[in-house]
Design goal:
With 184 residues, the protein is mainly alpha-helical. The chain has 2 domains: 30-146, no CATH class; 153-184, no CATH class. The chain has helices at residues 2-8, 32-55, 66-82, 88-95, 114-135, 158-168, 171-178; strands at residues 99-101, 106-111, 141-146. Strands 1-2-3 form a 3-stranded mixed beta sheet, covered by helices on one side.
Length: 184
């Protein structure tokens, strides 16, 4: 009897209308279908980036060296900063260690994780277009490898945790000494 009253009621708890206090299922993003859609979109982005790379390598190939590349890289970082686009990608881009193969004009580097790779894939067309135009070398390519760290280190004490963090960022040791901190 109660079920019939609920069904007959005009209040639907799964309403797609925006009502105060009612859950909107149209915004729910969990589910196998949505995860598969996300994976398909990522594959499409990868394919589009690869196709645009193949098409845009037609043009001059003015020689440049690693210092010239680093200068143009910093110009792109300045442009991101000017556009107030200082976020995850800016941070990742500013710490990456560039390598250049001057015979094939391939720029390569190592990314820390797969999350960074997704952001690099989204930003790659703009970045590579900028670098190619500034260096006047349309033969250059951009590639990276994702560092898969399989070493799982168990950190049980605060000293171990601090030592591990200081290993990754040595400036923590300076901060510890300046603030005269002790790790318990």
């Amino acid at each position: 009897m109660k079920i019939e009253k609920l069904a007959a009621s005009k209040t639907n708890i799964f309403s797609t209308e925006s009502k105060k206090g009612i859950f909107d299922v149209s915004d729910a993003s969990l589910g196998l279908g949505n995860l598969l859609d996300t994976q398909k979109k990522e594959e499409e982005v990868k394919k589009t980036v690869e196709e645009s790379d193949a098409e845009s390598t037609k043009g001059p190939a003015t020689p440049f060296d690693l210092d010239g590349l680093k200068f143009v890289w910093s110009l792109y970082l300045d442009e991101l900063k000017a556009n107030n686009d200082i976020g995850f990608f800016y941070s990742a881009m500013s710490v990456v260690e560039l390598n250049l193969d001057e015979t094939t004009w391939e720029i390569n580097f190592v990314l820390k994780n797969a999350t960074e790779e997704k952001e690099w894939l989204n930003r790659k067309p703009d970045l590579i277009g900028f670098v190619r135009n500034k260096l006047n070398n349309f033969k250059l390519t951009l590639s990276w490898m994702v560092d898969v760290n399989t070493d799982k280190i168990q950190l049980y004490t605060n000293r171990d945790r601090f030592a591990r963090l200081a290993e990754k960022n040595p400036k923590l040791l300076d901060l510890k000494s300046k603030l005269d901190l002790e790790i318990e």
